[in-house]
Predict the structure.
Amino acid sequence: MSEHIPVQQLPSSHKPTPAERGGKIHTRSFNGVFRRLRISIAGVLALLFFGTAWINWDGHQAVLWDLTERKFYVFGTTFLPEDFLLLAFVMSISAFLLLAVTVIAGRVWCGYACPQSTWTWAFMWMEKITEGDSYQRVKLDAAPWSLNKFFRRSSKHCLWLLASLATGIAFMGYFMPVRDLVSDLVTVQLEGNYAFWVFFIAGMTYLNGGWLREKVCTHMCPYARFQSVMFDKDTLIIGYDAQRGESRGARRKDEDHHAKNLGDCIDCHMCVQVCPTGIDIRNGLQMDCIGCAACVDACDSVMDKMGYARGLVSYTSERLLELPPTQRSAIKPGIRWRTSLIAYAVAIAALLAILALSLNAREQMALSAYRDRNVLRTNSLGEKVNVYRLKLTNKTQQIQTYQLTLASDKPLYLTKTYHLTLAAGERVELPVAVALKNHDPVHNKGSHIDFNFQMSNVNQPEQTIDQSASFIYQSK
């Protein structure tokens, strides 16, 4: 964006937009390329959201954040609390990626992939099939209560509530096995805390998608507040070509509007009627614009009917809008690299490299050890014995068998053989006794011997993990 936001003097004939009038916004139905694209993207995202939790992977739910056991299952891999640093990298990469996309394509996330926008469009569709198009809904609002109005309103709210409940169940299905969740919910056996969150998410979905809608985008969403700071002259925006469209005015399709000093805009207000936030894009780019391109589809349909070229309202940039129409073709399409975009790209590449290295170095098992407090013990052979508590975790999604040994050339040995079979994602804690041989001299001048426990996978010997420990053999 330019350094100074230009002040536009609206004409005296300016018709207040739905956003300026306040109250409920009734959007008009429409069709077009970008609407079909948005429905396709929303369909894929909804399928992933509602369907992923139902996928089984190696006998386990493919994606599950088990808060009770503090384990995060993702397609055959188990993440533990100590692995949450990886989650921080993923979130950082997502944040920088969103910033980079905003610099390039503006609010494309808001228009096509944001859950708030996606659910709002879905709730608006439910409203349309129960109460009719925009003008029918306006008449229904003004009409007195009747059997017809009650039936239509109750049908709408029933659909909203069903969609909201499905959303709450799907969301909580990633924190509790979804099949158990649905079964317990149907039989009214669901635990209170899970039931609370199911209905809380359902209630917030009903409130946001059915009632708040564009208010979330314009007043509550922090991204809407700071995204304009990242815009520049080459950022893709929804823009109205004032050089082509002005002056506005009605005309017949077959008359020469240029002879009457009119532009291509027929002032039909279709772009306003289809806008989910109720703004007039012809007044310039506004914070309320979510980049959904509904106005583009509506305007293109009007241009087709009038026999004019499409693109009066289109995806463009501030740089293009400032140029005369004859010079715009000289600008080649593509990403224009600038300092901010390069910085984001470097940050994303660095974080991806760190994440890849971290995942590659991540062990498929976890081992920790701490010594029991009663450290000075003696066995029947008169040897010093230390007892340790070992915690072993199988981070894979398959049953694994492990063998415990001592990775040390010290005169230490395990008092028994340890072979452990762990289920997928299972964690065990076991006591382990380590003895000091009497017939071997101790060369340490201190009071302890440092050594390592070594746990190896029997089926995959290359998978080995060490854990350091100390053997106390005399009091200080």
Observations:
- The first strand starts at residue 56 and ends at 57.
- The two ends are 72 Å apart (CA to CA).
- Residues 1-7 have pLDDT under 50 and may be disordered.
